[in-house]
Amino acid sequence: MQGQDNSLENPEYYQNRELSWLDFNARVVEEADDPTNPLLEQLKFLAIGSSNLDEFYKVRVAGLQDQLKMGVSEPDTKKQWTPKKQLQEITRKNQKQVRRQYALFEKKKKELENYAISFTTIDALSEADKERAKGLFKYEIDPAITPYGIDAYRPFPHLTDGVLHLFVRLEKSGKPFIAIVPVPQRLNRLFSLKKDGEILLLFSEDMIYSFLSDLFKGYKVTYSFTFRITRNADLEIQEEGAEDLLSVIEDYLEKRKNGMAVRLEVDNRSTSQSVEKDIAYLKKELSIKQRDIYYLNGPIDLTCLHEAVDILEDAGLSLSFEAFDPFYPQVYENQSVYSLAADQDLFFHHPFDSFKPIIQFIEQAVEDDRTVAIKQTLYRVSQDSPLVRALENAAKKGIQVTVLVELKARFDEANNVHWARKLEEAGAHILYGVKGLKTHSKATLVIKKEKRGFRRYAHLGTGNYNEQTAKLYTDMGLITADKEITQDVFDFFNYLSGYNEQPPYHYLHVSPFDIRDAFIENIEKEITLHRRYGNGHIIAKMNSLTDKMMLLKLYEASQAGVKIELIVRGICCLIPGIPGVSENITVRSVIGRFLEHSRVYYFNHNGEENLYLSSADMMTRNMIQRVEIAFPVLDEKWKRHIISILKMYLYDNVKAWILRADGLYEKTEPDGRKPIHAQKELMHLERSLVTSTKRSVLQRIRSFVTKRTQ
Fold it and tell me: How far is the C-alpha of 679 from the C-alpha of 233, rounded, in Å?
């Protein structure tokens, strides 16, 4: 790279956000080919890859298409690509990745045959099994099917986002006809037949295809194929002048069902006939571009593999991860969370630590007559949330309950509208967020009237108040009674609920803007101290890294010689290892059984060691378009513990991918070294110490890191 432009604005120094996301999804899909994952778990990763891609098209690709339609040609701030260029590059990369995904599905099908499991079609069945399948069709599918003919009296039907449809060519008396058959979403996608110890799996659309003549009596079915469309879900919520945001959100949800089509997927296996004229017809009706059409060598929408896993697990196949019970110390059975938090901060690393104490934090407050008020932010909660039920009970008991329910949490809007109404009916005071911003913070405050006066207790975390996702996502949090931090949380809630300017916090950093300003200040301090002492070190763990100001500041720190170790699960617009720019930066992505979701930011500061946990990634939307919190870890023992966990991830050589200077990711291998699988080791340490204290656990983690990395 001799003679290159050393200006940090050089587009060659950056990854495009959308392509970096596609690289992340490719890493997810590759978990389907990792032998350290049981076979059914490999199927789940293929399903997750499809689910991820659906949302990517509904939001990110849809947004770029909107820009193109409106004539926007302004390039992105990093790669300097126009919307048109980005859409072209997305198509080029994603077409290749989708082919890889379906090749892996074919490979997994062959591996399943070793366990007498077959994905099959009606044509491949014996005559006796065909009759059994016809019975399934007659009683489980046919009553729910509504075919739609298309002619002068029957217009082209509305095609629902994400629903499978069969395009059917018919003939009668020499005249051609067209029909479309939707596959109802609430039907089972997969049906199983058991035969002599073998499990046969049939797709619902294949069964409909095989019995189409039963739906069109008197007509000859010439041919048919399955297709699906994805619609734009990136619609703008008009908050300006809204007197009732709840009603605005409900109207928005209705409109989203009818968003413009942004992708057309076609199952290319089902007919040997040329379907180009039919695709041209669909393109015209849907106003879709050729670049957004995907011809798939397999069933559309591999999220159905979750259903396949459920069927196979119910059949008793032991091809999934061993069940894991999070660490729940006996002390929480014997003492209240509040008596423990009164003496020391309590740290939690989910899912290795149970989420139950967080639920107890609310439930025990409701049961305590000394509780005066409970305040909480809710971004994504479960369908049957025990936390929301506890808040309802609190309001009914006369406790002052203030809940910020973020109605704009994408794809959780309907669930949040439901809970907002329930809490309101119970007597809670509901806030709907901040105008123009999403409130993504994870904070709870409990105020009690104790013998010595009022005392506050707070929980701050990196993840949602959702006991279900807490079993699947790695997140960190603290329960504290520290007077200054709880005062900060108190001021934060008053800022949200009243007419207040941002207060001067003791310890919290709250976006918009303040988190980015605080991190820039910490990086600048690290540069200054490194020039004096030569020991500059930054470790940052996050979901995504896209903010241009943060990228520039990290490059500046690298140029000053600061060692920077980044653990970025998803999008990373920074390129490490560029001589003279980023040679002191390393980037790794850990993809495993649990979704890495915690955000941790460490600055050495010549041994002073500032450590923050946050709900925010280093993304522009988090830094300036959301209400987020970054909070310090003040307790030295927990600080040491979290740093040890970070080191475990930095030494992972089983599930980590390393980002190279050429912008490509490379899977790590032990290569004769001791295998270090961070998530697995954390699970093992917690499982082996179920009867131990938390202090014992953190001592074991530190000891493990020391031994494994020597």
Answer: 34
In a 10 Å sphere around its CB, with 0-12 CB exposed, 13-18 middle and 19+ buried, how is residue 666 labelled?
Answer: exposed
Res 255: pLDDT: 53
Angle between helices 17-30 and 83-113 in degrees, nearest 10? 0
- Give dist(CA 96, CA 94) in Å, integer: 5
What residues contact residue 318 under an 8 Å CB cut-off, 6+ apart?
none
664: CB partners within 8 A, 6+ apart: none
72 vs 74: CA distance, rounded Å = 6
Domains and CATH numbers, the chain: 11-314 (3.30.1840.10), 331-497 (3.30.870.10), 509-708 (3.30.870.10)
pLDDT digits (tens, 9 = 90+) for 67-123: 998 898 899 999 999 999 999 999 999 999 999 999 999 999 999 999 999 999 999
Active-site residue list: 440
- The annotation status of 13 as a binding-site residue, yes or no, is no
| 433 Rama class: left (phi>0) / alpha (psi -120 to 50) / beta | left
Please answer whether residues 89 and 14 qualify as being in contact, where contact means their C-beta atoms are separated by less than 8 angstroms.
no
> What's the confidence (pLDDT) of residue 704?
61
For 429-483, the pLDDT digits (tens) are 988 877 778 888 999 999 999 998 999 999 999 999 999 999 999 999 999 999 9
d(CA 234, CA 57): 10
Q: What is the DSSP letter of 269?
A: T
The pLDDT score that the predictor gives to residue 435 is: 76
Based on its alpha-carbon atoms, the radius of gyration of the chain, rounded to whole angstroms, reads 27
Residue 473 is assigned to a ligand binding site: yes
Q: What is the DSSP string of 482-510?
A: -HHHHHHHHHHHHHHHTT-PPP--SS-EE
Distance, in Å, from the CA atom of 361 to the CA atom of 446, rounded to the nearest integer, reads 9
Q: DSSP labels for 115-161?
A: TTEEEE-GGGS-HHHHHHHHHHIIIIIGGG---EEESSSSPPPPPPT
Residue 410 is assigned to a ligand binding site: yes
Rounded CA-CA distance 442/473 in Å is: 15
How large is the average pLDDT for residues 302-324? 94
Distances (CA, A) of 631 to 445, 625, 697: 14, 19, 23
What residues contact residue 621 under an 8 Å CB cut-off, 6+ apart? none
Query: Which CB contacts under 8 angstroms, 24+ apart, belong to 94-99?
Result: 94/22, 94/53, 95/294, 97/22, 97/25, 97/26, 97/29, 98/53, 98/294, 98/296, 99/297
Residue 508 pLDDT > 90: yes
pLDDT at 710 over 90: no
Location of structure tokens 């406790």? 399
Query: Contact, 627 vs 440, CB < 8 A?
Result: yes
**Which pLDDT does position 2 carry in this prediction?**
41
Query: pLDDT band at 407, cuts 50/70/90?
Result: confident
Residues, the chain, total? 710
Please provide the DSSP assignment of 540-592 as one string: EEES-B--HHHHHHHHHHHHTT-EEEEEESS-B-B----TTTTTTEEEEEE-S
Output the CA angle 693-694-697, nearest 5 degrees. Answer: 100
**Nearest CA-CA partner of 40 in 121, 117, 120:** 117
Q: Report the amino acid identity of residue 434.
A: V
Question: pLDDT tens digits, residue range 195-241?
Answer: 888 999 999 999 999 999 999 999 999 999 999 999 998 765 444 44
3-state helix, strand, coil in the chain (%, to 5): 40, 25, 35
Binding site annotation covers 25? no
